[in-house]
Amino acid sequence: MRLRLALPVLPAASSSRSPRRCLNAPVTDYDVLRVFCAPNGGYGNELGVVRDGSAIPERSDRQAFAAKLGFTETVFVDDPERGVIDIYTPTLRLPFAGHSCVGTAWLLDVPELVTPAGVVGTRLDGEFSWIEALADWAPPCTLRQYATAAEVDDLPVPPPGVGAPPTPFGQWGRIYAWAWEDEPAGRIRARAFPGRGDGIEEDEATAAAALLLTDRLGRALNITQGSGSQILTAPQPGGWVEIGGRVILER
After folding, report:
1. pLDDT tens across 6-33, in order?
2. Which residues contact 157 (CB under 8 A, 6 or more apart)?
3. Is the peptide bond before 26 cis (omega within 30 degrees of 0)?
4. Do β-strands 187-193 and 221-225 pair in parallel, antiparallel, or remain unpaired?
5. Residue 32 in contact with residue 81, Cβ under 8 Å?
6. What is the DSSP string of 129-194?
7. pLDDT tens for each residue of 179-221
8. Phi, psi at residue 213, to the nearest 5°?
9. What is each CA distance from 239 to 105, 140, 153, 215, in whole angstroms?
10. CA distance 112 to 115
């Protein structure tokens, strides 16, 4: 079953994984995924994917659609065979977003994704969907380390706009609060606060920030973020970082 929202009716891209609709017509089909799920399939960050991006060709309409859905990110697929995608938060267009790419890579099962930031390598490995990206593609982020995981758990949501300054794309850099749970094993507890003032006070799973943290620490990480989402990372030669997680088609 597919979700739909109030925009022109156009044929949906074919796939064995069925999409959804929102409740306002005219309609545009989209899928809802949960990305970076826990080992038991719980948690994860919701992602909307419009597999037929031609249904909403204008950027202003895409932005309005993403705001209507209200997910942390919504992806519009402009070429499913080549993996060309366009990414939006409820208020901003993004050149790159890790959680969007991990989820869309799983859904489309393509060898790469083409984003405004650059070409993202992808692979599926058992239960995990992986992407490879550069830390330079991630928006600025304040990586704030705490002494214990309990301190991270107890943090209040900071006011909007607190963190790194706005990027050229107009996005406030998020605060990524983290602490070691088990440093020798590379296990980290983290929470992410986007601070955009768009109704999303905390990201359940944030791959772009995990990418930056992995690049800074220079080692593979196993991150538990939000309520219990899991993000795996591994640095690669040439400044690249792999990011992996479980993806579930929610509806």
Report:
1. 433 333 333 345 555 554 434 589 999 9
2. 193, 201, 202
3. yes
4. parallel
5. no
6. EEEEEEGGGSPPEEEEE-S-HHHHHTPPPPPTT-SSPBPTTSPBPEEEEEEEEETTTTEEEEEEE-
7. 999 999 999 999 999 877 778 889 999 999 999 999 999 999 9
8. -65, -40
9. 21, 17, 31, 7
10. 10
